[in-house]
Amino acid sequence: MESLKQQNRDEAKRALAARLFRDGVQVEDPVDLGYHLGDGERVEPVVPESPEALEIYRHSTAHLLAAAVLDLYPGTRLGVGPALLNDPKGGFYYDFQRIDGSRFTPEDLPKIEKRMRDLIKRNLEYRRVEMTRQEAEAKFASMEEPLKCELISEKGGATVSCYTIEGTPFVDFCLGPHVPSTGKIKAIKLLSIAGAHWKGDEKREQMQRIYGTAFFSQEELDEWIRQKEEAERRDHRKVGPELDLFSFSEAIGSGLVLWHPNGAMIRKLIENFLNEELYRRGYDFVYTPHVTQSELFKISGHLEHYQDVLYPGMVDSENEALQYRLKPMNCPFHIQIYSSRQRSYRDLPQRYAEYGTVYRYERSGVSHGLMRARGFTQDDAHIFCTPDQLKSEIFGCLDLVDLIFRAFGFEYKAELSVRHATDREKYLGSDEIWDLAEGALSEALSERGLPYQRMEDEAAFYGPKIDFKVVDAIKRTWQLSTIQVDFNLPQRFGIEFVGNDNKPHQPIMVHRAILGSFERFFGILVEHYAGAFPVWLAPLQAIVLPISDRFNDQARAVEQALRADGARVEADLRSEKIGAKIRDAQLKKIPFMLVIGEREAESGTVAVRDRVKGDTGAIPVAEFSARLRSLVDSRALQT
Questions:
Q1: What CATH homologous superfamily does 246-290+327-529 map to?
Q2: Annotated active-site positions, please?
Q3: pLDDT computed for residue 314 by the predictor
Q4: pTM score of the predicted model
C-alpha cells in the first residue's frame, strides 16, 4: 500500500516537472519557492505556508549540499538526497562515496557549509533538463556515476528528467520540483556525518551520509537548534542509563531491552494504572505464546506484507514440515481465543487486552534505543463487536485515550485516515461496511468535540483508523495511540457470531493500542519529563538524609514509617557531607529530600527539600506522608 502511495506521489511530481519544463511557468513573487500541481490543470506557486513547501525547500538544499561537495571534492560519487520532515537527525541528507578512499570528518562540515553559503549568495539557477533514457545513462556513465546509472535503469522511463545548478559540476537524476534558484534558500545548517550502505543493503557500497537542515528563516533555524540541544539533554539513551532505568547488552543482542529495577518499577506503575482502567471498562486480560506456526501469519497476511521485518522461521526438528516464528503481532492470537467456541450476539462485545511482547527484526542501522527496538511489549487490545456496537466501542476507546494522555501531561491531536475518494481497488471490503466504519469514527470524534484532520487515502487496506499524536514538553510530536477498524482479519480467519436472526454474521474487529509499546512510550516519557518523573511514577519518591551518623537511627525510623504508609523511600546513611547527599539526590531526580538534623530529631519533623522548589520548611513526618499520598492518589504532575 505504501509503495502505491509513493507511486502516486511520484507520478504527480513527474507531471509537475514536465509541465513546468514545457510551459516555462514563472511567478513573480519574492516568497515564491517553486511550484506544485493544483486541482485539475492548475499550476500554483508554492509559498512557505504550502503543505509541500518544506519538502521542496529541503530537497533543493540537499542538492545544494551535493553541489558544494562536488565543488570542493571533485570525483566524489553521488547517492541519493531526500528531504526529511520529521526526523530528529535533520531536515535532509545526501549520501556520498569518496572514490579516493578518504572519508569526510566533522571538521569538514564548516568548510562545506561555507561553500553552500557562497552558492546561495551567487543566486544560481536550478535548471531542469529532459533527455532520453539512453542519453541519461550515457551522460552519467561518462561522469563515472554508476549509482545514478543504476537508478535510471530501475526508475527511468523513456524520457528522464535531470537537474543541474548553474555554474557547478552538479547533475542529478531527479523528478523535482525545486526552488527556482539558490538565493531562495535562507537558513541552513550541516549537522552530522554517518555511515550508510547503498539502498540500505549491508552487502552494497559503503557511503557517507551528511545530515543537514534548512528553514525559511534564521529565526526558525535558531529555534530548532535550541530545541535540538534541549532534546539532546533529554535523550532517553543518555538519561536512562544515568538514572539506572534500562540498558542494552550486545551479549543478548541489538534492540533487546533490559529493564533495571528503577525502570521496571515505573513500568509496573503504568501497568497497574492501565489495569485499573481496563477492568473498569470491561476488558478481559489474556496471555498468548511468543512463538507460533508460520501458517497463522500466512493466513493473517503478515508473511506477505511484513516478510522483511519478521525473524527467520524455525524448523520443528520432530516435523520438518512445520515452521515456527517469533510473533510480530498479537491480533491473530486473539482471534484464536475468540474462535475457540461459538459466539452469539449476546456475547458481544468481546474485549481482549494483553501486554503482549512481539519481535521484529529491525535492521541495526535503524534501531534507536527504546524508540525502535527488536523486542517490545504492546498494550494491545482487540474488540470483537457487531456493527451496531461499533460506535459505542469507539467512544470507549476515545475516552480511554483522553484519560491516559491527560494523566501523563500530554496534549494531543487526532487524525482520521480514510479511503481515497474514488480509487477503491486497493481497499478490502464493500462500500457499505466502509461507510459504516468511517461514519462511526468521524461521528464519534465530532460528538466528543475532538478536532481532527481528515487524511485522505491514508487508511489501512483493511479499514479506516484514528491515529493520535502527542505533543511533549518541548513541542515535539509523537505518534502513539491508534484505533483501527478491521474487516480483513475476521474475513481471512472466517470468524462469526450467531445473530438474533439465528444466522452467522461476521463481527467487526477493532484494534486498539493506547501507549503503542511500553518501550517506546517509556522512552518518550523519559524525554517528556527529562527524567524527573512525577511523584506517582517516581521509582524513589523520597530520600531521608541525616546530616551526620548521629541521626541515622532517626532516619531509619522515618524510612520505616513512610514505607508502612506505602511510600517508596530510602535512607542515605553514607558518611558523606549533607551537601554531597543533596547533590546526589538531585542528580537522581528524586522528588523529595527529607533532611534530619538536631532540631528535626528533637521535634519529630523532617526538613523537606523539593527537587524543584528547594527548601520548603520542616513538617511532621505524618503530615509529609499525607501530602505524599495526596500527590500519588491525584496523580499530580507537579509537587
A1: Bira Bifunctional Protein; Domain 2 (3.30.930.10)
A2: 331, 360, 378, 380, 382, 465, 511
A3: 85
A4: 0.82
